[in-house]
Amino acid sequence: LETKLPKVGTTIFTVMSQLAIEHGAVNLGQGFPDFNVPERLIEALDRAMREGKNQYAPMTGIPALRQAISAKTQRCYGYRPDPDAEITVVSGASEAIFDAVAAVVHPGDEVIVLDPCYDCYEPAIDLAGGRAVHVPLDPRTFAPDWNLIRAAVTPKTRLLMINSPHNPSGAMFTVDDIAELTALLRDTGIYLLSDEVYEHIVFDGRVHESVLRYPELRRRAFVVSSFGKTYHCTGWKVGYCIAPAELSTELRKVHQYNTFCTFAPAQWAFAEMIDAEPGHYEQLGAFYEAKRDRFREQLLTTRLKPLPVPGGYFQLVDYSSVSDLDDAAFCRWLTVEKGVAAIPLSPFYESPPTGQRLARLCFAKNEATLDAAIERLQKL
Ligand code: PMP
Ligand code: GLN
Questions:
Q1: Which domain holds residue 349?
Q2: Is 239 near ligand 1, meaning CB less than 6 Å away?
Q3: Ligand 2: does its nearest atom lie under 6 Å from the Cβ of 167?
Q4: Is residue 61 part of a domain?
Q5: Which UniProt keywords apply (predicted)?
Q6: What are the helix and strand counts (H, E) for the chain?
Q7: pLDDT for the residue 67
Q8: Which of 197, 234, 240 to mutate to test the pocket of ligand 1 (most atoms within 8 A of CB)?
Q9: Do 372 and 357 lie in a common domain?
């Protein structure tokens, strides 16, 4: 078999979760909450299934959910996307990313990604016949270097992919970044894919600079979000893409032959939940901020050094005072020998910075889980 994805193995998230199970480690690796979804969502899902909403949903998503997403986008970002032409419900942000890339990237096109970047970006680009052009973020602050990004643009650049709040670092685009981005893309035909799955998990009074707030950006953008992050249900795999009509039309051509539609009962449940409990996503930042603060406080009792976390639900730690192993070896050792699973950063890079000694810990966990992890980390 001549593989189409020679560089791809099993994802680091699967590898580390498997290792955590084998060794009975506390799993702070793969990003998923270990607490349950809101009760109302379970009731709404149960009701939808009992009412027989179990057949194919409309290809673009049920109208009630697209309406709810549109109204919520207006509330959050002051922009009301057309629910019929501009919103598509898909099976997780991963599907949105795959569909968008497949829809616009032609063989030979270049796609700029900012390293470290989420691991599904490059395989999607490769399968479309494109070439990922990796531009590093600052190795400490994970801020974009606009000079480097500008220098990476060529006549072949078709798409730029951004992610704020950022996985794995939690870094967030500032208003200045948005201004740089706008100037960079002005007068080009480059599309933008903005991965905003952690849009509601932002801390310390920061504002999430959604691309949807900015008319000049959103007219060339696929903006991707995920109910998995917002409603603690990563296993449901429901997300959506907001894009101008012309781009949504192209994305839907892929979506309709990729999955056709997304789990129908969950769509009914989210439609109800968004309208009935806007407080859920409005308070999500505060909910996770309390977890972040408590976890960071506890980390100060270990030899791991926590980096700042502006948003998202991951804590990067510098482990250089504990070990000189590279990050993959360190995370394996931490899981197998010390009983705490973590994610190395190197799989998020084309070429990881030499000597980087950082690991990612997920704090979307119950206090008992985090306490158990800290107890083990104190022994490092
Ligand atoms: N993008 C980023 C940055 C993510 O962290 C994730 C989930 N870990 C995804 C996309 C995929 O989201 P989903 O599970 O909804 O496919
Ligand atoms: N997005 C999750 C993370 O970053 C993992 C998703 C997955 O396992 N596919 O940990």
A1: 12-30+283-377
A2: yes
A3: yes
A4: yes
A5: Aminotransferase, Pyridoxal phosphate, Transferase
A6: 15, 13
A7: 98
A8: 197
A9: yes
- 23 and 88 within one domain: no
Q: Is 144 in the pocket of ligand 2 (CB under 6 A)?
A: no
What's the Cα-to-Cα distance from 127 to each of 59, 122, 145, 348, rounded to whole Å?
A: 23, 9, 28, 18
Say if residue 181 is in the same domain as residue 297: no
At 181, which CATH number?
3.40.640.10
In a domain, residue 5? The reply is no
Instruction: Over range 349-365, report the average pLDDT.
Output: 97
Backbone angles phi, psi at 87, to 5 degrees: -120, 130
In this structure, the answer to whether residues 248 and 349 fall within a common structural domain is no
Mean pLDDT, rounded, of the chain? 98
Give the residue, by CA position, lying nearest to ligand 1 atom 12.
93
Shared domain for 320 and 181, answered yes or no, is no
- Helix, strand and coil content of the chain, in percent to the nearest 5, comes to 40, 15, 45
The two three-digit tokens of residue 172, written as one number? 């967030």
Q: pLDDT tens digits for 123-173?
A: 999 999 999 999 999 999 999 999 999 999 999 999 999 999 999 999 999
Q: What is the pLDDT of residue 51?
A: 98
Q: How far is CA 364 from CA 39, 97, 367, in A?
A: 18, 23, 9
Longest Cα pair distance anywhere in the chain, in angstroms?
58
Same domain, 241 and 373: no
Q: What average pLDDT does this structure show over 35-59?
A: 98
Can you name the residues that pair with 268 across neighbouring β-strands? none
Same domain, 365 and 224: no
Ligand lying nearest the CA atom of residue 121: 1
Ligand 2 contact, 27 CB (< 6 A): no
Q: Ligand 1, closest atom to CA 166?
A: 3
Beta bridge partners of 318: 305, 358
